[in-house]
Amino acid sequence: xxxxxxxxxxxxxxxxxxxxxxxxxxxxxxxxxxxxxxxxxxxxxxxxxxxxxxxxxxxxxxxxxxxxxxxxxxxxxxxxxxxxxxxxxxxxxxxxxxxxxxxxxxxxxxxxxxxxxxxxxxxxxxxxxxxxxxxxxxxxxxxxxxxxxxxxxxxxxxxxxxxxxxxxxxxxxxxxxxxxxxxxxxxxxxxxxxxxxxxxxxxxxxxxxxxxxxxxxxxxxxxxxxxxxxxxxxxxxxxxxxxxxxxxxxxxxxxxxxxxxxxxxxxxxxxxxxxx
Length: 276
Description:
The protein is an all-alpha fold. Helix content is 85%, strand content 0%. The chain has helices spanning 9-25, 27-39, 46-81, 85-112, 114-122, 129-144, 146-161, 166-190, 192-218, 223-251, 258-275.
């Protein structure tokens, strides 16, 4: 027969933890809704521009970030339950490193070819060249925050593995407030670009605060080592950009197909990045 065991200590604890976790996991969607609400105050078409830009950057977070963090969480929970702090710290650093290995060059590539990707995916029918221009700018500024959003997702999972839902919840509420404030500060001068940049900046600020608090909670997390790793990846991505852009401009004169040009550029970018 049905047995809803609300008197069970573990069930009660689970129910208390669910709502903060739900809020923390939906923060990105809430910020997108806020962006669109504020965008409705600007010129016509800005809401659609943000929507299309978010589709492109959302693909990266869905494929790489969500996949890695979903696979990572059970391991973090086991290590937390075993009180193996050292291994938990190592797993966290490794996960951030793996995400950076993919997200940093992808972000650089999306910034390089933001307009080209938009043109390839959406430039047809009622979607004009002006829409391509604006959506490409949104993709560019959204891409600036991809790494911070990715690190934040991994870091929040560490808090959840430690059964600390209070800290991520407060951080999520702060992210919403920051996003609104920065949106209002930038929307008049930068319009759609300001809204996308506000999302990236709020993600950066709240991620930094979250990892600082994690170090205070768990001790030495190896952030200096991780920063050195990211610096190497950024330098490699810079080399990738320096090699890929001239190649793309040269190759695009040899073919009329945007798809072929982009695919060739992506292959060159991958080779240069991983060699670097």
